[in-house]
Design a protein that fits this description.
Strand order of the largest sheet: 15-16-17-19-18
CATH topology of the largest domain: pyruvate-formate lyase- activating enzyme
Shape: globular
Number of strands: 19
CATH class of the largest domain: Alpha Beta
Number of helices: 13
Bound molecules: 5'-deoxyadenosine, iron/sulfur cluster
């Protein structure tokens, strides 16, 4: 979502007559779009600010945006006086006026701050998406979270759950496709909690929205991320079996394989209910690739709790997954829970979990070896004539191909599989 927000901010500054600088040294304005999800990500901003000082000792106008801005507000300007603007993720449409305000600054420590969560959505004010040829795009459809998992800052930094309107999303999708986009990934902290009235006034869920996007000519692939188990409706599961453009990939975090830990995390689902959903999704779409998120070392996690996480990974069988050491976040309930886990225990658990997940990823990739499939070419590879594309299951494929370009869908035969990517050979050029 930060990638998406970054694009929207850049587009807005372009509307203000700015353009992307060729290098950091030449930039008049630098916006650092930040993440507060774990401590490491949050601390990064301070070292990045230090690196913005130019050779002659001057600094560009510096804006800190995103969730660190939201969570730390004025504290940022106190810790880093060279910062001119602090703007939260729901207020960045006000960047132009914050820039004006920053210009009036008299003291080095003055800073224009906006961490409001205004009632009028930024989406109503941001300029329309410009035509920009590219193969894939993100599209935020839902923001914020009401789930309040006890480890997580998102409900505080991104605010309450809101769904963008049906028409705003469909219009933005059409504009992206008009510009050449072939694949859209619908984004939300709880994307599958999206609800809204369709153009006939009928309430729809994410599956209804996906079915509407499926009708856009020229759009070839639809993805969505990230989902919560409790919002995985039967309609959405059915869509995986019925909507051809909906890709066979589901990112459905479980976080832990232990019911007591899930309860302490306030996840509001059990291991069994999670696995039951995976079973239903696999029944609807047998080839679906599954992905997830895991946290090791949540307060109170015993050896047995951790072993249960390995068990759920074995039961689910992921094509790819993200795993993290628990990071206490200020203001969240888990940060003050007793029984915080020692760093060396977290390290060891993370290593064991990642070894298992890597094994599963490699096995998944090997399972694709020898098949014919289609890939969307996303970028050039390092070798001459080489392109990198993605399979429907989101695996990267390296292929040498002539007479094709980025954004083309081509058919390939998978010739070999590595732990992180596949090698393919072109079998036929499909009409674009
Ligand atoms: N510590 C570690 N990982 C976290 N995540 C969210 N909050 C924390 C935290 N405090 C992880 C979860 C979530 C992903 C986006 O980040 O796994 O799904
Ligand atoms: Fe954070 Fe996701 Fe839980 Fe919401 S559902 S609180 S975003 S981990």
């Amino acid at each position: 979502m930060n990638v998406y927000d970054g694009e929207r901010m850049a587009e807005m500054m372009q509307e203000q007559g700015m353009h992307a600088a060729a290098s950091r040294e030449e930039a008049d304005l630098v916006i650092l779009n930040t993440c507060h999800i774990r401590e490491k990500a949050a601390e990064k901003v301070y070292s990045d600010i230090g690196r913005l000082r130019r050779k002659d000792g001057s600094t560009p106008t510096i804006a800190v945006a995103g969730c660190v801005a939201q969570a730390e507000g004025a504290e940022i300007a106190r810790r880093a006086p060279s910062v001119d603007i602090v703007v939260g993720p729901q207020a960045y449409h006000r960047l132009p006026s914050l820039l004006e305000e920053a210009k009036t600054k008299t003291k080095a420590t003055d800073c224009a701050i906006d961490t409001d969560m205004p009632a009028n959505s930024k989406f109503d004010i941001l300029p329309d998406r410009p035509r920009q040829p590219r193969p894939t795009a993100f599209l935020t459809v839902q923001e914020g979270c009401d789930k309040f998992c006890t480890y997580c800052v998102v409900p505080y930094t991104r605010g309450a759950e809101i769904s963008r309107s049906w028409s705003a999303i469909v219009d933005e999708a059409k504009a992206l496709v008009d510009g050449g986009v072939k694949e859209i990934t619908l984004l939300g902290q709880n994307v599958n909690a999206w609800t809204g009235e369709d153009d006939k006034g009928v309430m729809q869920g994410l599956d209804g929205l996906i079915r509407a996007l499926d009708r856009i000519n020229g759009l070839e692939r639809i993805r969505y991320t990230t989902s919560h188990a409790n919002d995985m409706t039967q309609g959405l599961i059915d869509a995986h079996g019925e909507v051809a453009k909906l890709m066979p990939y589901l990112h459905l975090p479980v976080q832990s394989g232990s019911n007591p830990i899930l309860q302490a995390m306030n996840r509001n689902h059990s291991v069994e209910s999670y696995l039951a959903i995976l079973e239903k999704v696999r029944a609807a779409r047998p080839d679906i690739a599954l992905s997830g998120d895991f946290i090791v070392g949540f307060p109170g996690e015993s050896d047995a709790d951790f072993e249960a996480t390995l068990d759920v990974v074995r039961a689910a069988n992921y094509s790819q997954a993200f795993s993290f050491k628990y990071s206490p976040r200020p203001g969240t309930p888990a940060a003050t829970m007793k029984e915080q886990i020692a760093p060396e225990i977290m390290d060891e658990r993370l290593q064991r979990l990642q070894a298992l997940l890597n094994e599963q990823q490699f096995a998944f990739n090997r399972g694709l070896n020898g098949i014919d499939t289609n890939i969307l070419l996303e970028r050039k590879g390092k070798k001459p004539g080489q392109f990198v594309g993605k399979t429907p299951w989101l695996t990267s494929v390296h292929v040498i191909a002539q007479n094709v370009g980025i954004g083309d869908m081509i058919d390939v035969h998978i010739e070999s599989a590595g732990p992180n990517s596949l090698q393919g050979r072109v079998i036929e050029r499909k009409a674009a």
